[in-house]
DNA-binding response regulator
Amino acid sequence: MTADDHIVFIVDDDARIREALGELLESHGMHAAAFESAGDYVTADKPDIPACLILDIELPDINGLDLQRQIADGDHPPIVFITGHGDIPSSVRAIKRGAVDFLTKPFNDADLMAAVHAAIAEDREKRADRAERDKLRQHYLDLTPREREVLPLVVSGLLNKQAAAELGISEVTLQIHRRNVMQKMAAASLADLVRIAERLEIPITHSRRVGGN
């Protein structure tokens, strides 16, 4: 990990804490950006790279847990909470909403760094997953309208003749569309195409009917 391929955001209203965290992260070769309020963090321009958000609970403009709830539907980095007034209900709520850790001040530097590394690794994985999903979605958009009709029939397990009958086309034409779907979706096998359809949440409305019944 280099300082250029990630960033750690620090949101804490205590300047001494911001400075200490920045120095700690820098000593580990990590790049950080600090803010004294949730509003400053939300409105700041942020680089599109793997990140972690170290977030204090008590902030001057909004509670950290409320900020976590407000940004839950967006693409935000994994959160590591820090607080000087920790309590079990708050920590449970934070973790249930996806926080990586909930640390009470004064915390152990090693515990914080372990949480930060875990958060950045989680964000890398989320970004890779999102990139793959976007690529698959683009492949799907490249399909013709007929090919988009063929895809769910194929992954549902229908035989070629059943799928062809469903669409009112010949079996040969169905096979051509099926081959095009496999190529455009970059599917190595039927099982791979099924996995892709699941990733894209393509509705499967048919099930295999033996003998066409």
Observations:
- Residues 209-213 have pLDDT under 50 and may be disordered.
- The chain has nine helices and five strands.
- The beta strands are 7-11, 32-35, 51-56, 79-83, 101-104.
- The radius of gyration is 24 Å.
